[in-house]
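Quick start: what a row looks like.
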Amino acid sequence: MTKNQHYPEEFKIEAVKQITERGHKVAEVATRLGVSQHSLYKWIKLFGQPAQDRQAQASQTEELRRLKAELRRVTEERDILKKAAAYFAKQSG
């Protein structure tokens, strides 16, 4: 496959299983499948845990992203209100 080839999720999961469940070495699996060791290590990190754990982690990541966006919005609103309060304090003073 080409350098920037996108592999199906099933392919990645099976590659990870060869390492995590069957005890094959990363270098061996990488050579046999024609993928980089770097890709295999990333796939192990991503698919090396049970699907339920991956789903929970994805949910937490999504919630964190949502909360950061909300925090950014609320911080901007607060800064605008501070500037408005300072402006009106100066006008009435």
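That is the whole record. The chain has one domain: 9-92. The chain has a mean pLDDT of 90.
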